Amino acid sequence: MRQFWQRFLPALTPGVQTLIGLLTLSYLAALVGSWLHIVDLRAWLDLTGPKFWSGQIWRLTTYPLLPAGILDFIMNGLALVMLGGILERHWTRGTFWCYCLLAASGAGLAKVILQSSSPVPLNGTTPMMLGLLIAWGFLCGREPLVIAPFGETTVWKLVLIAAMVSCLMLYFTAGPITMMIMAAGGFTGWLYLWLKHKWLMSRAGSVVHSERINRLEL
Fold first, then answer.
1. What's the pLDDT tens digit per position in 130-158?
2. What's the pLDDT score for residue 147?
3. Residue 181 and residue 168: Cα distance in Å, rounded?
4. Which of 115, 172, 215, 218 is the most buried (most CB within 10 A)?
């Protein structure tokens, strides 16, 4: 077991390590505070429409700190380890963190718009993980993957299958509105990456155009 952790921890990127540590600490603090009746973190961090519209806007970014349950914590933690390391190596640590906040905020806005008067809270990192999943497909979509026993596929195909399975599970377990709220995290991430790609392409095109004009002037 010690050898496993010695190999596993160094393989994690710094941004993922920090995020995993923050999620773990907040989850343990919420459990201990609830058991000992010291503090109720959910009353301060989770997101509902009425609390947001009363001015508590910080909840758009704090609700992922509280998992929906132990299964949510474990499964999304594993997804964060697998996807987060890949994406942080493509980006910087700050960009990775900002993207996670963006995906979470997109789902949060969908929550307070679609369920503006509902007291049912939103928490957990599922919207963030869907955003990371979409980002993996956007950045590495054409890369081949070999998955036994299904054979070779591409990252985009795997991402689409995983996203569809996740949405179907949410639809049948939590309902269509909750499914749309969670999926908004992935959509927000995709929209951001698409707009950024278009902006970079337009800048590259303008630079090439300027270089050609300069050559003609010479």
1. 999 999 999 998 898 887 766 788 999 99
2. 78
3. 13
4. 115
- Alpha-carbon Rg for the chain, nearest whole angstrom, is 20
SS3 call for 45: helix
58-99 pLDDT tens trace? 999 999 999 888 888 999 998 999 899 899 999 999 999 999
The CA distance from 64 to 26, in Å, is 10
Identify the sign of the CA torsion 87, 92, 93, 97.
negative
- At 165, list the tokens: 């399975």
Fold held by 2-189: Rhomboid-like fold (1.20.1540)
The token pair that represents 176 in the structure block = 């269509």
Closest CA to 189 of 142, 117, 126, 113: 126
**Is 174:165 a contact under the CB 8 Å cutoff?**
no
CB 114 within 8 A of CB 132: no
pLDDT score at 4? 46
Cα(154)–Cα(35) distance, integer angstroms: 46
Residue 203, SS3 per DSSP: helix
- pLDDT at position 195 is 95
Q: Compute φ and ψ for 122, nearest 5 degrees.
A: -110, 130
- Is the CA virtual torsion 43, 57, 116, 162 positive or negative? negative
Beta carbons within 10 angstroms of residue 190's beta carbon? 19
Token pair for 186: 């992935």
Tokens linked to 203:
């800048």
